[in-house]
């Protein structure tokens, strides 16, 4: 069972740390309990020694709801900068992401065609040449690709459209803030999706239907969806529930990279584009389980959704994914308890920088590029020297 921990920290407004009971015990052991309610109110000492390492107690996110803003602290991190994948081999060996290979029949896909998910449709993007205007661009030195590309092919193979999916290997992503920098395909007839998934009735989606983009009237909608039991009873048509919103974006999502974000909190989900809240959903349709992240690009000819197939190969390009979350695994919770000596000391908690419409510099920021990150890096273990030489790496902290 998850609980909310509310506390103040040196000039930072009251924040909420969504933790399971074992993690709450960490704070009750360290600090004086002033008042016991469904949430625990704790005052942290502002006069404490420095943290042993940066971010050892977690990552602080600003949650910008439609009525008010608050802060949430998350214990774990998974950051991937896909521009550092220089070869197909590095993509295949990624420790945090797995390319998917499976087929869906026409009936299962609920379209005119089936879907053929193949690893060869997840590829290293083309080398970037210069910098365009208006969106996000990495300014770091060294060779970089545009990102990873998820391809939908124009040809039909055995009654199926060749499509692509990339999943996190970790399945323990509970409450968290999940962010992806993407450039959507220009070609009509595909569905590009960034979503959190537990099962078909606990799913949080951001889906882009390229057939609906219309430059003539600046129409660039994104579909925001909670798949739930109610949606399943309606034939997986969330539009027939209260958990489907179509929002027109103030920019062309195929023109450049933009950050799309999902905040998954107890009983609430917030959707963002470039740091601006697009919609808020709550109620029983909000998931209550851990899950994983999925990047997907597909088409099945369903004229009511993806349309297509596309007349030419179409690419969804993903520059990065940043996930800050609480793990559902007991071992990960114990790891956090061991390294978080005092969340009040300087640098023990790291504020997550946010992309905003007027400032995309946060797109360049990766905690895993810092030199004093906390110990207990559980994936992509490499020496500091290889890291500084520009070798791609991703951390789960």
UniProtKB/TrEMBL annotation:
What PROSITE patterns does UniProt report for this protein, alphabetically?
GH16_2
- Among the record's GO biological process terms, what is one? carbohydrate metabolic process
Gene Ontology MF term list: hydrolase activity, hydrolyzing O-glycosyl compounds
Q: Where is the composition biased (Polar residues)?
A: 371-385
- Chain residue ranges for the region called Disordered: 370-397
Instruction: Give every GH16 domain span.
Output: 80-329
Q: What is this protein called?
A: GH16 domain-containing protein
Organism whose genome encodes this protein: Staphylotrichum longicolle
């Amino acid at each position: 069972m998850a609980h909310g921990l509310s506390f103040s920290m040196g000039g930072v407004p009251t924040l909420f740390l969504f933790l399971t009971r074992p993690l709450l015990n960490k704070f009750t052991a360290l600090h004086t309990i002033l008042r016991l309610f469904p949430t625990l109110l704790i005052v942290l000492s502002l006069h404490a020694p420095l943290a042993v390492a940066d971010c050892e107690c977690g990552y602080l996110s600003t949650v910008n709801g439609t009525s008010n803003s608050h802060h949430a602290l998350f214990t774990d991190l998974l950051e991937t900068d896909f521009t550092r994948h220089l070869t197909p081999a590095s993509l295949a060996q990624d420790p945090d992401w797995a390319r998917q290979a499976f087929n869906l029949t026409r009936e299962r896909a609920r379209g005119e065609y089936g879907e053929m998910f193949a690893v060869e449709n997840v590829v290293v993007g083309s080398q970037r040449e210069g910098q365009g205007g208006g969106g996000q661009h990495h300014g770091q030195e060294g060779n970089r690709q545009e990102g990873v590309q998820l391809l939908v092919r124009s040809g039909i193979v055995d009654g199926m459209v060749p499509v692509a999916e990339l999943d996190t290997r970790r399945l323990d992503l509970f409450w968290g803030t999940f962010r992806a920098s993407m450039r959507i395909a220009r070609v009509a007839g595909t569905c590009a999706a960034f979503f959190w998934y537990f099962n078909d009735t606990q799913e949080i989606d951001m889906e882009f239907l390229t057939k609906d983009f219309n430059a003539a009237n600046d129409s660039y909608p994104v579909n925001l969806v909670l798949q739930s039991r109610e949606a399943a009873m309606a034939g997986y048509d969330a539009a027939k529930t209260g958990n489907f919103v179509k929002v027109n974006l103030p920019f062309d999502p195929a023109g450049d990279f933009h950050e799309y974000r999902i905040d998954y909190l107890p009983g609430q989900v917030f959707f963002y584009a470039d740091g601006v809240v697009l919609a808020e959903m709550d109620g029983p349709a909000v998931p209550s389980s851990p899950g994983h992240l999925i990047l997907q690009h597909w088409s099945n000819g369903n004229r009511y959704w993806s349309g297509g197939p596309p007349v030419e190969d179409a690419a969804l390009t993903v520059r990065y994914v940043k996930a800050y979350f609480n793990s559902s695994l007991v071992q990960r919770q114990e790891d956090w308890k061991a390294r978080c000596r005092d969340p009040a000391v300087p640098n023990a908690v790291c504020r997550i920088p946010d992309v905003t419409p007027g400032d995309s510099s946060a797109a360049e920021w990766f905690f895993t590029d810092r030199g004093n990150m906390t110990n207990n890096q559980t994936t992509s273990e490499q020496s500091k020297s290889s890291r500084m030489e520009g070798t791609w790496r991703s951390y789960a902290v």
